């Protein structure tokens, strides 16, 4: 099927985002983006607090099982909340779910900062984890469903990348509190109170953020969805703007197709169709790969890894760890900005090839030091750790969530995302219990297991990952349901936009001083457009010659995006 003459490419804003209404939308989307920073801050804070002598003294130096339970408390709370989060997101909306999550997190922070026993502190961590599961489900859904079409890939990728920003803030807050209030309980209470800033901002400001138009259409509130798209996507602010008409037509048609394919949106619908089974296979695999690519060795046990190559000085280890967090943030943000330029599939392949080669070299240097005692091999290990994280961060950090959300259709998006989070939690638990035991038992030889696993990952990525660059959210989600559905969505949106263009455009005819004007039908308009070229674009306010080549800048070749 040929693409319609008018597509979303003709109506999207191509200048800097700050010169359009997009700037206001992006400003509001910073609020759900903050959720990932909150997660990074909270996840890293416990490690920072354990370094503080005053925290250790106040809670009687917890160790063993107590310390393990403390580390796992947030994950436990998240797992308890996971079954409820998609129900809340799909029935109440993305904004109320984020609001509820922030309330629980704020309550948990209050209990945590006022804790008088280690049991109370662990309980507060569970409450925070429970609330965080709601926020982590709703925030990326809101971003991916509300963002401007050309901004969606970057913003959703930046969401998970922002985790490192929170992690860096946590480290420096603990350091600053220790320097300013060392010797008092406020050296650990202040960092816990800082955790309240994010939830408070979300509780107070979330109602200024517009609701997901996809959710509103699904709930029969199309007029509200149209107003939101007009205000934040259309530069004219008009609900009859062709871009708004195009998006609304695609959303309606996509939801209609989803209802025809799946009669219900229960958990079983995740595997009820071949397309859904393929989606969930990819999502579960990516969730496992995101934690089992070797990154878990450094993320949670950098002390053991560095001591394994002879680096034992505390200051040196702290400097390497701190530098690695900043490096991770820069690499992840770089990947987020490249998702629309290089494509998702390309980045995943580059990432896995790079990790495999680098981890192999990392294994060799570790083996040389442990078996032959070669000091230069130990020194070479540190750069390999940084190189490994560069390749990991350009794909898995930004795209784990972004790719998951864009390949899921609306009716199972929240549930499929919850499954992804659940699998990540399980693999994290595996890392926390198995990795230290394995490193202690077989040392550097454990790295060989990851080398073999990285080969399996690369084969899977090359075989199953589908390119999604250059498509609207509805077109991307429909990729797994056959070749016809994405083309139908393009056609549906294009026809709706074309009708609107014809209704709004007045073509001037004749060369006399008293030129005649007439409103043309869609068919007349298409014929005139094909002959008049740039002049018809000028009727819509375009100043450039929008050639076929220019119009393809957002639409990629369909042969690059077909399901294998």
Task: Give the key terms.
mainly alpha; two-stranded antiparallel sheet; transport
Give an account of the 3D structure:
The protein is mainly α and 564 residues long. It contains 26 helices and two strands. The protein has helices at residues 22-51, 53-58, 64-81, 85-91, 94-113, 118-146, 152-161, 163-181, 186-194, 197-205, 213-218, 222-232, 242-261, 274-292, 295-307, 314-342, 344-372, 375-393, 396-407, 410-442, 446-464, 473-477, 484-504, 522-532, 534-539, 548-551, and strands at 506-509, 516-519. It is found in: Membrane.
How are the SSEs placed, and which strands pair?
Blueprint (H helix, E strand, L loop, with lengths): L21 H30 L1 H6 L5 H18 L3 H7 L2 H20 L4 H29 L5 H10 L1 H19 L4 H9 L2 H9 L7 H6 L3 H11 L9 H20 L12 H19 L2 H13 L6 H29 L1 H29 L2 H19 L2 H12 L2 H33 L3 H19 L8 H5 L6 H21 L1 E4 L6 E4 L2 H11 L1 H6 L8 H4 L13
Antiparallel strand pairs: 1-2
Please give the radius of gyration in angstroms.
26 Å
* Strand runs, count: 2
User: What's the order of the H and E elements?
Assistant: HHHHHHHHHHHHHHHHHHHHHHHEEHHH
Strand order of the largest sheet: 1-2
Beta-strand share of residues? under 5%
Task: Assign the structural class, choosing from mainly alpha, mainly beta, alpha/beta, alpha+beta, or little secondary structure.
Answer: mainly alpha
**Overall pLDDT score:** 80
Shape: globular
DSSP helical segment count: 26
Unreliable stretches: 506-564
- Between the first and last Cα atoms, what is the distance in angstroms? 19 Å
- Helical residues, percent: over 70%
Major sheet: size, sense and barrel closure?
2 strands, antiparallel
Subcellular location: Membrane
Main location: membrane
Transmembrane segments: 24-46, 66-85, 97-115, 121-143, 163-182, 188-209, 282-302, 322-339, 346-364, 384-405, 417-434, 446-466
Catalytic activity: myo-inositol(out) + H(+)(out) = myo-inositol(in) + H(+)(in)
């Amino acid at each position: 099927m040929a693409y319609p003459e008018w597509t979303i490419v003709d109506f999207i804003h191509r200048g800097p985002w700050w010169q359009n209404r997009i700037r206001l939308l992006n400003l509001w989307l910073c609020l759900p983006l903050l959720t990932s920073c909150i997660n990074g801050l909270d996840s890293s804070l416990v490690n920072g607090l354990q370094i503080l002598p005053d925290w250790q003294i106040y809670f009687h130096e917890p160790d063993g099982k107590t310390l393990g339970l403390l580390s796992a408390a947030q994950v436990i709370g998240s797992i308890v909340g996971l079954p409820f989060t998609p129900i809340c997101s799909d029935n109440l909306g993305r904004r109320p779910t984020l609001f509820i999550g922030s309330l629980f997190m704020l309550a948990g922070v209050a209990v945590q900062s006022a804790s008088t026993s280690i049991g109370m502190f662990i309980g507060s961590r569970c409450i925070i984890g429970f609330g965080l599961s709601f926020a982590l489900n709703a925030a990326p859904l809101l971003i991916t469903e509300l963002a401007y079409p050309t901004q969606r890939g970057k913003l959703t990728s930046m969401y998970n990348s922002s985790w490192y920003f929170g992690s860096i803030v946590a480290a420096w807050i603990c350091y600053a509190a220790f320097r300013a209030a060392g010797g008092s309980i406020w050296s650990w209470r202040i960092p816990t109170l800082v955790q309240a800033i994010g939830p408070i901002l979300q509780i107070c400001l979330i109602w200024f953020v517009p609701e997901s138009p996809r959710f509103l259409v699904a709930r029969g509130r199309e007029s509200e969805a149209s107003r939101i798209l007009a205000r934040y996507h259309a530069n004219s602010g008009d609900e009859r703007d062709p871009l708004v008409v195009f998006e609304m037509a695609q959303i309606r048609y996509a939801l209609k197709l989803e209802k025809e394919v799946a009669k219900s949106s229960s958990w079983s619908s995740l595997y009820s169709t071949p397309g859904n089974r393929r989606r969930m296979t990819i999502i579960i695999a990516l969730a496992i790969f995101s934690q089992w690519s070797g990154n878990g060795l450094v993320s949670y046990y950098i002390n053991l890894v560095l001591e394994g190559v002879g680096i034992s000085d505390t200051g040196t280890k702290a400097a390497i760890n701190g530098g690695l967090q900043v490096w991770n943030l820069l690499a992840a943000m770089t990947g987020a900005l490249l998702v629309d330029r290089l494509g998702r599939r390309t980045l995943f392949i580059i990432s896995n090839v790079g990790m495999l080669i680098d981890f192999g070299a990392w294994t060799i240097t570790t083996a040389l030091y442990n078996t032959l005692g070669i000091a230069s091999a130990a020194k070479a290990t540190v750069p390999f750790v940084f190189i490994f994280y560069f390749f990991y961060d350009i794909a898995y950090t930004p795209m784990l969530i972004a790719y998951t959300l864009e390949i899921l259709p609306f009716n199972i998006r929240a549930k499929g995302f919850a499954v992804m989070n659940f699998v990540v939690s399980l693999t994290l638990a595996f890392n926390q219990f198995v990795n230290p035991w394995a490193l202690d038992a077989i040392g550097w030889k454990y790295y060989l297991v990851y080398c073999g696993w990285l080969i399996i990952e690369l084969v899977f990525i090359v075989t199953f990952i589908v390119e999604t660059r250059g498509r609207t959210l509805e077109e991307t989600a429909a990729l797994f349901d056959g070749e016809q559905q994405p083309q139908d969505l393009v056609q549906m949106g294009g026809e709706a936009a074309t009708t609107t263009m014809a209704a709004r455009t007045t073509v001037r005819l004749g060369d006399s001083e008293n030129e005649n004007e007439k409103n043309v039908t869609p068919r007349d308009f298409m014929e005139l457009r094909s002959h008049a070229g740039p002049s018809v674009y000028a009727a819509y306010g375009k100043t450039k010659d929008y050639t076929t080549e220019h119009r393809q800048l957002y639409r990629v070749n369909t042969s690059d995006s077909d399901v294998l």
